[in-house]
Amino acid sequence: MTTPALKSHYSAVVIGGGQAGLSASHYLKRHSIDHVVFEKKTVAHKWKNERWDAFCLVTPNWQCQLPDHPYDGTDPHGFMVKDEILAYVDRFVKKVDAPVFEQTSVMSLEKQADLFRVETSAGRVTADAVVIATSLYADPAIPRAAERLPDDIVQLHTAAYRNPNHLPEGGVIVVGSGQSGCQIAEDLHLAGRKVHLVTGNAPRCARFYRGRDVVDWLADIGQYDITVEHDGMTKKKHDTNHYLTGRDGGRDVDLRKFALEGMALYGRMSGVTGGKMLFEPNLKANLDGADRVYNGINALIDRHITEKNIEAPDGSVYEPVWEPEAEKIDLDLKAAGVTSIIWATGFSPDWSFVGLPIFDGSAYPVHRRGVTAVDGVYVLGLPWLWTWGSGRFLSVGKDAEHVVGHLTTRLSAQTSSLKQSVSA
């Protein structure tokens, strides 16, 4: 990476040094646009410091398509493990060689006449354009109910979890059944720990179906090309990801099977009181909803196979292997031997530094494929910014290319207009 002396003005400022910000820098360099990247921690910090030891990709390696940096290993249909992912990201960091200021926080972003004023911990700069690439995953989100838990219970967010051996002996509650929650629950379960999994409305997906990885089928069907502008797709920006895993070559995550093996399942957490965790009576509804999505995706693949007259192994409909006998509405933590809790409750964005009118009533940035209503301000790296892969290795580069293309055209138009006014 390149860290030049800080200048007072740049054509473009990129806020965030993750995969989105680096992708933006890649295209800005290609267009010879003077720019700087501000990263409040270190480049690719989350990949290096906020993943557990057994972490691996849940999408096949061939979907790693960072700009001019596609997966080039020997197992395109496998799933890179943590060290392999870090090596892939590190090679991209070196290839881009972005002008990054690490450990540099952006405190405010405001409009100043025709420019943008960016106040940072390294000093103030102005810019003609700004790309906000800080994603939705800035800070761990932990519910306030955590404050009412007994002091002797160890609490960790998924960002701090590493492996079962780092937790005290005893039972573990995992709150949240999205991708991270289910994978960490499995990690603990495989280690022989007593796991209590608090479920939510996350959907699930088969790993393999009718002879292929489901992701391969969905790519052929065109699911990864559908944009948020298709009817009903705008709501996708807040959807929870489907849970499955790439561990040990990839497999389904079936919470019902875990229950047969001794994992305790509960409905959504509703509170904490008197040393007890309380739950909504919706475990069955959560499991049934996840299975409906599972079978619905498989049915979509069935139709594709039939319409295209593709030879493939027979399909099937998932039938529940376990049903809850009753809805448990509370758990006495001490009586159950619970000594630690993993909060798999996601993250919250931090746009507090943005002093520009780019947000809707829910504090989400309004944009069309990263282009906001404030001329010269862009967002990048958000889930479903444009397609399913927007916030991931698959399509973040495509979105960055689009954003930088728009930015380049805008700067060129400004330069042309300035020249015309000077000559006049």
TrEMBL record:
NCBIfam families, alphabetized: MSMEG_0569_nitr
Gene source species: Rhizobium sullae (Rhizobium hedysari)
Protein name as it appears in the record: Putative flavoprotein involved in K+ transport
GO molecular function, one term: monooxygenase activity
Domain of life: Bacteria
Matches recorded under PANTHER family: FLAVIN-BINDING MONOOXYGENASE-LIKE PROTEIN (AFU_ORTHOLOGUE AFUA_4G09220), FLAVIN-CONTAINING MONOOXYGENASE
InterPro entries, A to Z: Auxin_biosynth/cation_transpt (IPR050982), CHP04046_FMN-dependent (IPR024000), FAD/NAD-bd_sf (IPR036188)
Keywords carried by this UniProt record: Oxidoreductase
